[in-house]
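Me: I keep going back and forth on a fold encoding question. No explanation is needed for now; the record alone will do.

Assistant:
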Amino acid sequence: MTIRTGLNHLFIPGPTNLPETVRQAMNVPMQDMRAPDYGAFVLPLFERLKRLFRTASGRIILFPGSGTAAWEAAITNTLSPGDRVLMSRFGQFSTLWVQMAERLGLNVEVIDVPWGAGVPVEEYARRLRQDRRGDIRAVFVTHNETATGVTSDVAAVRRAIDAAGHPALLFVDGVSSIGSIDFRMDDWGVDLAVTGSQKGLMLPAGLGILGVSERALAASRTATMRRAYFEFADQLAMNETGYFPYTPPTQLLHGLARSLDRIEAEGLDNVIARHRVLAEGVRRAVRAWGLELVAESPALWSDTVSAIRTPADVDAREVIRIAYERYNCSFGTGLARLAGKVFRIGHLGDLNAGMCLTAIAIAELALNAAGARLRFGTGVAAAQEWYAGAAAPGLALAAE
């Protein structure tokens, strides 16, 4: 039996570290979900989540489940079998979204781009201009591809849709971006935005969260794809008074309220700035090691996860194994075609500079033990220098 002392250092891109105040908020007895005062507890959560999504006109819908459940709810409520949709594959999660769309019977027009690139905006624009009959019903964008550490330009996709005068709905996977990276549902004309509780919201997995525009709600009234549990209309009818058609995860909702307290106290703009500063420290460490990120250019660098290529003669799985077994530290693995070539440092949620320095120091130990030839302290020093000079609001706030 292996005895692990001290903290488990969690540096995966989700689930993220759970703040103690959030954990305590969920430690409540079971409640009557039909009690007369339950709605008063729930109703404010919808308005607060609207501020997180930065939407005034959209609606928030909560389903027990992961972000993947929210993906399915978004598709089944607004599209019909055989509908043509435009998607791109450039990482594991954008690939899984394509697979889901195909399994649900959509006619998927897929654009494949290298893993490390972002959403192919120019190609989207070209195909939308060609589609003069408006057959493409929806355009899908993975805002932050967690497998490759790539953040794409959602606003640019909206501009491409508008420039083509196209009526397509805009779907955005914001699972690892919303609440951590700048996201503006109304300003960017997003019709369906999806996230989950276990990323920037610093909760256990179990809540799929959707932002739904008026256009998407209108589409849901005529869409013919089969759904039952995921029916928007059932949820919205009950949500009007703060209740749910099925049993809600009440403890998660208590945690959500406390998580939103923390985000609002720090300020959403400050949360986003903190993530950028923390991510840049990790990126400077990677450069100091002489290694490369999967993301092809600085414009694509993610502020929530860095996917780091190991040297050709170093198996990234060994780096991850050594970090876990020797130092009680979890890094993200390389997924699918990146397995063995990449390890990932998640830097989102309840995180500060000291925690990132821990991740960098342990990564140096594990890389060296796995056979990489790099000098101890180079990455740590590069990150320290950056953090010492950074002046992002909220950076000095320690995790509670």
Observations:
- The longest strand covers residues 136-142.
